[in-house]
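PT: before anyone asks, these are the final sequences, not the draft ones from last week. 649 residues across everything. Please model them as a single complex and drop the result in this thread when it's through.
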Amino acid sequence: MTLGSRLHALVEGVAIALDAIRANKVRAGLTILGIAVGVFVVTAMSAAVHGITAGVEHSIAAAGPTTFFVTKWPIAINNCNGSDQSCPWRRFPPLTLEESRAIAQQPGIKTVVAHLNTSVPVKYQDQELGGVGVDAYTAGWPETDGSDIIMGRSFTEGEDAGGSQVVLVNEALQQRFFREGDAIGREIFLDGNRFRVIGVYRPVGNLFNSANKPGMIVPLQTAHRKLNAGWRWMDLTVRPRDAVPQAEAIDETISALRGHRLLRPAEDNTFFVSTQEKVMELYDKIVGMFFIVMIALSAIGLMVGGVGVVAIMMISVTERTREIGVRKALGASQGIILWQFLVEAVTLTLIGATIGLAIGAGLSALIRQHTPIEASIPPFAIIAALATSCITGVLFGLFPAARAARLDPVEALRYE
Amino acid sequence: MSDGIIRIRDLARRYVMGQETVQALRGVSLEIRRNEYVAIMGPSGSGKSTMMNVLGCLDTPTSGEYWLNGHEVSRLSDDALARVRNKEIGFVFQTFNLLPRASALSNVELPLVYAGMRTRERRERAAAALERVGLANRMDHRPNELSGGQRQRVAIARALVNQPSILLADEPTGNLDSVTSEEIMRTFAELHGQGQTVVMVTHEPDIAAHAARVVVLRDGRVESDRSTERAAA
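LR: through. Structure below.
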């Protein structure tokens, strides 16, 4: 089989496939739909994940690459079943502000930010929202958090220490409450306590914390005194000085904490130190699971499409039995017949893939417009979608195409 | 060696259909020389369709030898047979068997496509073949825009375009009225006059009468093999 005859069969195959689609609209439509759904799921979800990952990477970059976390519990997927053996951290003492200060005094440490979270009902004039997430930080938080303050200011150390009732709201909450006019200086009620809005921030969206949900940031002491945020679940974010290696800063932190907790050398740490790499590992694991679900979903779509391909191609082969006989009589080899029908099958699946990609692109544009997630279809997803649909076309087209190629020319010519 | 373009010796073809074995050909020997015009006749069940399929390399014999243009072709693989059909045989069918979606020119081009010829040369050759059968002005027509006689002439052009050793026609006038049939027979006669070897399978004596030699099959054997008056003339 020469390249020329292959090319000719390619052009013919595409034309015949388009004819077949016109002739069998419902079947072809279902086939194309199945493939389109499969491709759409992959592209839309990978666009979203791509955007979220970009956000997470941005937040890591904002926090400084050497920043790490001190927590009472491990940051990992663990199999804690409630017993003390499987999760010893349940008996660990909670982190304290004193410990936070002890770490901050180490020579290699630039900032330590203590953090708590809670959720409260929030009220502005006659509008009320229940269960709005509140992050409570010490004053240094803008140095370790990827969020941008886009209006107003953050709170000072003095405001934190004094438990000032000041609050920063995120863009989503600002949109809800203060659509017209300035948010700064307004008074809102958190769990019945009067707070003054001093800033608006744009949060970094990530998998765990949707950026388009209303949220607020308040000083840590204020959250403890007025919003019933307990110390038990406090975590610390530690940023080393710029020239200090991360390992050195971690060593300082561990010895400061061990010293403070009077742990003997034989005793294990009663806290966890996690680097951003570790957090990224966890994130990657979760994204990995996400991808598995996504691949399963798209596989179903592709299977539906694939079965459609088999059906429509079997019909095509049967309807054109005589034509296949004529082609063979004129000298078409088995290879060229096989190729022609595979081209036809792949044309169907590629049309589906193109539609799926278009819908996926549309959805990712919507996500980009309406959420802070910078959703964009990564080039590998486009290539993967097209390749997968080609492979689906070839795999499912192979059986009908092979049947066509192996037809006995005498029988085929006799076929009515 | 003689100039026999087709040389067949003791050719047999058996079909197994369930429990039954059908003996379609039971030892046929036949030689057809270059530039002969032969009609193969016989009642239904005589084996003439099987003969046609074997001669056209669409089917292979169970036993015996078949030499086509100096090559033994009775034991070839499917793809090798496809190449032989492409190069050596030009088929003309009772029902024309043109591709409905393709223009006359594209239909005639198809054997050249399978031969691997480049586009430009292909177009020229196909156009020349259509001119040869008097359809120069119908090249862009689709089969459904052509009359029966015109369709059969497109099929003849398609059969001739690769300059085959034999033109093999299976009931070429079976779907045509008598006036058109005469036209097609004239075309065959002209081609024969230009040196083309023509083998025609038919059950109509007046069509067979156009040939120079008539081979009659019965029960899978050659019953008679004689020259017609036309050959003498």
